[in-house]
């Protein structure tokens, strides 16, 4: 059961004998109560404050916010009419590389600059990122071109550092169930882009978001980045139906990452259009000035020219489905 009140209720807390979680959200206090509450207490609560939400993820449920939640990363708003595109290189490699990418994706219409300073890689011998130096470069590019920054944190200790330089933190697929990281991101208050795990169910994805919301951070954007199946022709399989379902059952905005979902630059535009047609609120696209020399994910990175074409194609689909 969810109980929404204008302020903390000691009477309710006493009556539920510790069977509750209290969340401060948007000037209100939300109680997640396990089990019922005594009738005598229920009758004293404001009318409409109690909401009996089915399922194990009441805070992410669309029943809680039927109209959906809008999340801002800098000036970019997710969950509204406009499709927000986050673009940039997989990894920050140098100031020259990032500034070139930032300038060109901003000119093409991107609303958020993406770039990795901490890179969790399958092989320990692969490029792991520049760390804090990469964060500094991201901040400089953001200030230079007037575009907010999204970057990944790979453990809870990195959250304060990322929050110092970035406008939003990404929790990657490998860390979707890193519960210490989820809690730390929740406590930080910084907007969170939460990627679906490689083999995660929709329910597990929603539960991961619940960890962040339970800490009082409602600035969460879900990101479908493809799941692992028996198929080997693409890097992953973009679960378009799962993304649409996430929008149906959750009030949180949902975006798609066609770069990781396909792993092939020749499929990214088609996958992006499919995501927007299915209701995505945003896209996460890897763009590199010179993909052939990229230190990370070159085969799935678009050139700036290809990204410009993607923006034109996606815009046409967005208009067709009543978005912009």
Query: Ranges with pLDDT <50 over ≥5 residues?
Result: none
Q: Using the coordinates above, name the CATH class of the largest domain.
A: Alpha Beta
Structural class: alpha/beta
Number-wise, the strands total 14
Q: Quick one: CATH superfamily of the largest domain? A: Aldolase class I
> From N to C, what is the helix and strand string?
EHEEHEEEEHEHEHEHEHEHEHHEH
Q: What count of domains describes the coordinates?
A: 2
Q: What shape does the CA trace take?
A: globular
- Please state the second-level CATH architecture of the largest domain: Alpha-Beta Barrel
Cα-atom radius of gyration: 20 Å
Counting DSSP H or I runs of 4 or more residues, the number of helices is: 11
Strand order of the largest sheet: 7-8-9-10-11-12-13-14
Query: What is the fold named in CATH at topology level of the largest domain?
Result: TIM Barrel
Largest sheet: 8 strands, parallel, barrel
Q: Give the distance, in angstroms, between the N- and C-terminal Cα atoms.
A: 37 Å
- Considering DSSP H and I runs of 4 or more, what fraction of the residues is helical? 25-40%
Mean pLDDT equals: 94
Strand content: 15-25%
Index terms:
4-stranded antiparallel β-sheet, alpha/beta, 35% helix, TIM Barrel, 324 residues, 8-stranded parallel beta barrel
Task: Tell me what the structure shows.
This protein is an alpha/beta fold and 324 residues long. It folds into 2 domains: 2-51, no CATH class; 71-320, Alpha-Beta Barrel (TIM Barrel). It is built from 11 helices and 14 strands. It has an 8-stranded parallel beta barrel, surrounded by 7 helices. Strands 2-3-1-4 form a 4-stranded antiparallel β-sheet, with no helix packed on it. Helix 3 (95-108) packs parallel to helix 4 and helix 6 packs across helix 7. The protein is globular and about 70 Å long. 45% of the residues are buried.
């Amino acid at each position: 059961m969810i109980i929404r009140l204008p302020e903390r209720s000691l009477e309710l807390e006493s009556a539920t004998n510790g069977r509750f979680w209290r969340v401060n959200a948007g000037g209100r206090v939300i109680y997640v109560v396990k089990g019922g509450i005594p009738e005598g207490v229920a009758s004293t609560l404001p009318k409409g404050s109690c909401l009996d939400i089915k399922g194990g993820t009441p805070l992410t449920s669309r029943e809680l916010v039927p109209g959906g939640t809008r999340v801002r990363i800098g000036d970019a708003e997710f969950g509204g009419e406009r499709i927000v595109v986050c673009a940039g290189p997989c990894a920050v490699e140098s100031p020259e590389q990032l500034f070139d990418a930032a300038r060109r994706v901003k000119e093409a219409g991107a609303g958020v600059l993406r770039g990795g300073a901490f890179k969790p890689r399958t092989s320990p011998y692969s490029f792991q990122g520049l760390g804090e130096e990469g964060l500094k470069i991201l901040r400089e590019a953001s200030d230079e071109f007037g575009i907010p920054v999204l970057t990944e944190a790979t453990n809870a200790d990195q959250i304060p550092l990322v929050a110092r330089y970035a406008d939003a933190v990404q929790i990657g697929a490998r860390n979707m169930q890193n519960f210490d990281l989820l809690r730390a991101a929740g406590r930080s208050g910084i907007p969170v882009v939460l990627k679906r795990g490689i083999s995660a169910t929709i329910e597990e994805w929603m539960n991961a978001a619940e960890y962040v919301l339970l800490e009082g951070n409602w600035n969460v954007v879900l990101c479908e980045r493809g799941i692992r199946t028996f198929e080997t022709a693409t890097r992953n399989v973009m679960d378009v139906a799962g993304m649409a379902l996430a929008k149906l059952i959750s009030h949180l905005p949902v975006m798609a990452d066609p770069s990781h979902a396909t792993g092939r630059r020749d499929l990214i535009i088609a996958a992006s259009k499919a995501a927007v047609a299915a209701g995505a609120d945003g896209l996460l696209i890897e763009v590199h000035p010179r993909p052939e020399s990229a230190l990370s994910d070159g085969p799935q990175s678009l050139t700036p020219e290809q990204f410009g074409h993607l923006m034109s194609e996606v815009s046409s689909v967005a208009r067709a489905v009543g978005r912009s």
